[in-house]
Design goal:
The protein has 189 residues and is an alpha/beta fold. The protein is 39% helix and 22% strand. Strands 1, 2, 3, 4, 5, 6 and 7 form a 7-stranded mixed beta sheet that branches. Pfam families: Flavoprotein.
Length: 189
């Protein structure tokens, strides 16, 4: 994937943030990447990253300021800012809100504004209840036009039997496939 305008929404699955930075590095090599951060990802210090350090790394990798407000994200629609959008990581909370049409964060407004333009949205799942409460939202979004998934798997079937996470190394391939209107297969491995 080269020469594309890519919006990357980052939500609060903090344990996957190092993988998210690697995805950003890959995509930023040859594409124009803009990050949209959820309130949790932009404001919460965790054992994985200090919020300000994470934001600084994202901006360094992309070479542009992040979007953090609903007002900033709303302009994505009318200005047709992106060819494709990726939500990485896509938490169970974000899945539920996407499935039910809630737009109460910059990331969710970005997704809504982007899909309104008839352009693909790719989700890189990371949730502890994908095979539990969030399963209905995964199913709902699998059937949604213009929504694609990065292939995902159980990350710890013994200790976290309902948890699933995307294979972040497949983000670029999933984006390429979505640009062609095709879901990268297999979805679950």
């Amino acid at each position: 994937m080269k020469g594309k305008r890519i919006g990357v929404c980052i939500t609060g699955s903090f344990c996957t943030f190092s993988h998210t930075l690697n995805v950003l590095r890959t995509l930023a090599a040859g594409n124009e990447v803009t990050a949209i951060l959820s309130p949790a990802s932009v404001s919460l210090d965790t054992r994985f990253f200090k919020a300000s350090d994470f934001r600084a790394q994202v901006e360094e990798i992309t070479g542009r300021p992040v979007m953090t407000s609903i007002v900033e994200a709303e302009r994505i629609g009318p200005e047709k800012l992106f060819d494709i959008m990726l939500i990485v990581p896509c938490t169970g909370n974000t899945l539920a809100k996407l499935n039910w049409g809630v737009t109460d964060t910059a990331a969710l407004m970005a997704a809504k504004a982007h899909v309104r333009n008839g352009r693909p949205l790719v989700l890189a799942l990371s949730t502890n209840d994908a095979l539990g409460t969030a399963a209905q939202n995964v199913g709902g979004l699998l059937n949604r036009r213009l929504v694609y998934f990065v292939p995902f798997r159980q990350d710890d079937p013994v200790k976290k039997p309902r948890s699933m996470v995307a294979d972040f190394s497949l983000c670029e391939a999933a984006l390429d496939s979505a640009m062609e209107g095709v879901q990268l297969q297999p979805i679950v491995f």
